[in-house]
Specification:
Length: 429
């Protein structure tokens, strides 16, 4: 039975809803003191002892990748965070690889690197002195690899004699992680304060490649002020893509909330929803502060019980919206063996994107029930798609099954969300 719940106070009144085509949605209105209304909160157990709605779709890290990340963020043959875009999100294990990984190491433009992501630059040893490399630039017409590179240094070197010069990197503990002798390079003053030109014409190819900042798919020189605003790695504790236990310092999560640090992700929502954003938030928040990728398991349940609402995130408990319906359909209907774009079980593609729903779902005829339409905006009882998931609907075609086939029936909350969405005209935005 579909139950529409409105919290209005302390006492309860059951009001019968409409009945048509064998579907009998009921409306429960909880009336209370003063006659005012209130919404059911989400957080911890989701209010009223009910589970957090995100936990029904993304209970584990593995399901978060399968139902959310892989369907939205790592598609299109490598264009979207698969091979050619940092970070790689193709495999489930790649989600764990975000933990403590540096953020914005290969941006489309250095200006997109926020100060919070900047880390100390590599050190140029010149005249026996360690000098931080703040930036490295070169003319776009330089060959690959380049022969001329301009460095912006944190201090004036004691000499420009390149004898014994090298570039090395220290980790957070101050230990050297690698060292590259520069060999036959020469230095000259550049066209500005702190700028020095390196002539690499006689250098070996590995040195030239290392200093080619145009290449984003290989190890290259790390600079301390890539965005060039004069503030080098100002954050005492630089952000990571995922900072364990701290979503506020997790660049991956921040990009889901707004365009403050670059275009808001995902660029195309596909199956993404506020529930997926909440799952990411609770996953990060529930980690131990000293978590590492090797110590995490894809099968670990995401901790929703102690996870509060993030006031900066979209409402994960929203019901009756396209975002909530998209999340339900993506996780329960448009799966690989069912109504996906490739399998189209029963000839029905339920890939939850606006174009597919406009052509195959909204006011589209049912191939199973003659004369019925899949979704009739404003009329849940006349929408055959809704009948197929409502266990109380008697208008399903003979010899057909309740959907989703072989899985648990939709919850009352999920049915309510779909019904409300249809009642509101089945909007696709």
């Amino acid at each position: 039975m579909l139950r529409q719940v409105l919290i209005v106070g302390a006492s309860l009144l059951l009001v019968s809803g409409f009945a048509a085509s064998g579907c009998t949605p009921d409306t429960q209105i909880i009336l209370g003191q003063g006659g005012s209304s209130a919404s059911v909160g989400v957080g911890g157990s989701g209010g009223g002892g009910e589970p957090d709605p995100a936990s029904l779709v993304y209970p584990t890290i593995a399901s978060l990748h399968e139902q959310g990340i892989s369907r939205t963020c790592s598609l299109n043959g490598g264009v979207c965070h698969q091979d050619r875009q940092y970070p790689d999100l193709f495999a489930p294990e790649s989600l764990l690889g975000l933990v403590n990984a540096p953020c914005q190491v290969a941006p489309a433009s250095p200006g997109l690197v926020p100060d919070e992501c900047e880390r100390p630059g590599d050190l140029l040893v010149l005249g026996g002195v360690d000098i931080e490399i703040l930036d490295a630039t070169l003319d776009a017409n330089q060959p690959f690899p380049p022969t001329l590179v301009t460095l912006r240094l944190a201090q004036t070197p004691p000499t420009l004699d390149a004898a014994g010069s090298r570039i090395h990197r220290l980790n957070e503990a101050g230990m050297e992680t690698f060292s590259i002798p520069l060999g036959a390079v020469t230095f000259a003053p550049g066209a500005g304060a702190g700028l020095y030109t390196m002539n690499l014409a006689a250098a070996i190819a590995d040195v030239r490649k290392f200093l080619d900042v145009r290449v984003t798919t290989a190890e290259r020189v790390r600079v301390g002020d890539p965005n060039g605003n004069g503030i080098a790695h100002a954050s005492v504790a630089p952000w990571s893509l995922v900072t364990p236990s701290d979503p506020t310092r997790s660049y991956f999560y921040k990009r889901l909330l707004s365009d403050k640090f670059g275009p808001q992700m995902p660029l195309i929502e596909r199956t993404w929803s506020p529930l997926a954003t909440r799952a990411v938030y609770c996953w990060i928040r529930g980690m131990s502060p000293d978590a590492t990728p090797s110590g995490l398991s894809l099968d670990t349940p995401i901790d929703y019980e102690t996870c509060p609402i993030d006031p900066d995130a979209p409402d994960p408990g929203q019901s009756g919206t396209w975002a909530s319906v998209r999340s339900i359909v993506a996780s329960r209907c448009a799966t690989g063996a069912c109504h996906s774009s490739t399998t189209k079980a029963g000839g029905l593609d339920l890939t939850p994107d606006p174009n597919t729903f406009l052509s195959a779902v909204i006011s589209a005829p049912s191939a199973q029930q003659v004369g019925a339409l899949q979704v009739v905006p404003g009329q849940p009882s006349a929408s055959y798609l809704f009948c197929k998931v409502d266990p109380n609907c008697e208008a399903r075609a003979p010899m057909t099954k309740l959907m989703p086939l072989g899985l648990a029936a939709l919850t009352d909350k999920e049915l309510l969300s779909i019904s409300t969405w249809i009642l509101d005209g089945a909007p696709l935005e």
